[in-house]
Write a structure and sequence with these properties.
The protein is an alpha/beta fold. The chain is 39% helix and 18% strand. The protein has one domain: TIM Barrel, CATH 3.20.20. The strands form 4 sheets. An 8-stranded parallel beta barrel has the order 1-2-5-6-9-10-11-12, surrounded by 8 helices. The radius of gyration is 17 Å and the shape is globular. The chain binds (5S)-5-amino-3-OXO-hexanoic acid (KMH) and zinc ion. (5S)-5-amino-3-OXO-hexanoic acid binds next to strand 6.
């Protein structure tokens, strides 16, 4: 069995500052949290940026550039920049930082979809910032956009022109077929890094039968030309990662997708979650991939060939 790649998505665009005091917001906090996660065993750091003043997700390349070089200088981890961005950003805005930074890896959501995170607001009545509640509640009327034309263009500009490879985010079985279509068109080549996502309202539900179905479908479509990873949103994070690892997959944790460490227990850092999944994996006699091993498994261009 090959080693397990731990990805850590440190801040994202789903959770808001009122939900956890531990969510990294400023460039300094994002850099520190990423470095800690890498030191704890994450080989890949998946990054979004936030407005340092109010924590709102931002596509501003200048903000990304405040933390990317620090993380690069302090760790060997693979830096993976979102192309999904945050709610309400245009495709061009979402691509601004990746095109400037030319990272080894970028996320790529494999379709347009409903993306309802209004449930994350919970029963909360007090908010640190005025934008948070409407941001979340507005997602009952939100469509995340990635048409085939968008996907083709992203694979050409980032992939072909800059040598960036992708974390193909698949929220449902149909997204695997979308990816197979892109592969058949010649827009993307293996080994494909597939991130199967469970538990986002708008995507497939967090049931283990779906995990098996996702795995079997990916096997049928991609044979051994893919590297599989799994994330479970919210309380499904650790159980879905564990099941994926037992099926030969890789795992993604981080405060982007869950603010908790266990039932009723907030994670106080990204590194907390990395340490927990690492412990589970090692208890299962699985070995953790180093960044160098992840680079080899995913055929990445190398940390010295980025734009930051
Ligand atoms: N938080 C994930 C469910 C992206 O950055 O492109 C979605 C995500 C999207 O990671
Ligand atoms: Zn993300």
């Amino acid at each position: 069995m090959s080693k397990v790649i731990i990805s850590c998505a440190v801040t994202g665009a789903i959770h808001t500052p009122s939900m956890s005091e531990y969510l990294p917001i400023t460039p300094e906090e994002i850099a520190k949290s990423s470095i800690e996660a890498a030191e704890a065993g994450a080989a890949i750091i998946h990054l979004h940026a936030r407005d340092p003043i109010d924590g709102r997700p931002t596509p501003d390349p200048a903000v990304f550039m405040q933390f990317l070089p620090i993380i690069k200088q302090s760790t060997d981890a693979v830096i993976n920049i979102t192309t999904g961005g945050g709610l309400g950003m245009t495709v061009a805005e979402r691509l601004a930082a990746p095109l400037l930074a030319k990272p080894e890896m970028c996320s790529l959501n494999m379709g347009s979809m409903n993306f309802n995170i209004s449930g994350a607001a919970g029963k909360r009545t007090e908010w640190k910032h005025a934008w948070e509640k409407p941001y979340l509640e507005g997602t009952t009327d939100f469509i995340f956009r990635n048409t085939f034309k968008d996907i083709e263009s992203i694979t050409r500009t980032l992939g072909e022109e800059h040598g960036t490879r992708f974390e193909f985010e698949c929220y449902d079985i149909g997204h695997l077929y979308n990816l197979a279509h892109c592969r058949d068109k010649g827009w993307v080549k293996g080994p494909l890094f597939i991130q199967s996502i469970f538990g986002i309202t708008g995507g497939i539900g967090p049931e283990y039968q779906n995990l098996m179905f996702m795995r079997e479908t990916a096997n049928r479509l991609f044979g051994d030309d893919y590297v599989w990873s799994v994330l479970g949103a919210g309380r499904h994070q650790m159980s879905f990662c564990t099941m994926a690892a037992m099926l030969g997959g890789n795992v993604r944790v981080g405060l982007e997708d869950s603010l908790y460490l266990g039932r009723g227990q907030m994670a106080t850092s990204n590194a907390d979650q990395v340490r927990k999944i690492r412990r589970i994996l090692e208890d299962l006699s699985l070995e953790i991939a180093t960044p160098a091993e992840a680079r080899e498994m995913l055929q990445l261009k190398g940390g010295d060939r980025v734009g930051f």
